Amino acid sequence: MTLDLGVLISGRGSNLQAILDAIADGRLDATVRLVVSNKPGVLGLARAEAAGVPTKVLSHKDYPDRASFDAAMVAALAPAGVQWIVLAGFMRIVTNVLLDAFPSRVINIHPSLLPSFPGVSAQAQALARGVGISGCTVHLVDSGTDTGPILGQAAVPVLAGDTEETLSERILVREHQLLVHVLSAISTGNLDLPMALGVESLS
Prior knowledge:
Blueprint: E1 3-9, H1 14-24, E2 30-37, H2 43-50, E3 55-57, H3 66-77, E4 84-87, H4 96-101, E5 106-110, H5 122-129, E6 133-140, E7 150-157, H6 164-187, E8 199-200
Parallel strand pairs: 1-2, 1-4, 2-3, 4-5, 7-8
Antiparallel strand pairs: 5-6, 6-7
Helix pairs in contact: 1-6
């Protein structure tokens, strides 16, 4: 089935670009119906516009609370024909207002092997703990913080001398691959939600 996606971003939109590239070259049967950013002028908006994808800026600062902000997002996403939501570097905690509008169809990409290192600065957390392997996780979003059912994971080695920036960039490469892999598995019916795909080793 073709996935009708709404992609939420807050910055450069590299995972959005991975989705757009995969659609363009036939690796992913999906259409990005709308890209919503909570920040104006970010690179992700330019990426969407270059691909001919509609965009909308909704600043969270214009709303009194998270629920009313999420209600505004639903009001933008639903009429656009969106069926699945992808949080692609979206730096806001979503509420049940959004989750109830798209039940079990909100997906997040997180830069750690959950349940290890949830929340912000996951790469820094991994370095501080001194782990030898980190990675990324695609999961369904629930009302907790990075606690939803895991759909897929990819492992990345932590190298001697790594900084938060170098580890983040290495994980980001795998994020692009894993997010497209999971979305493709959903679209082809090869992923029984919410079963995990397992950990991929770094090739």
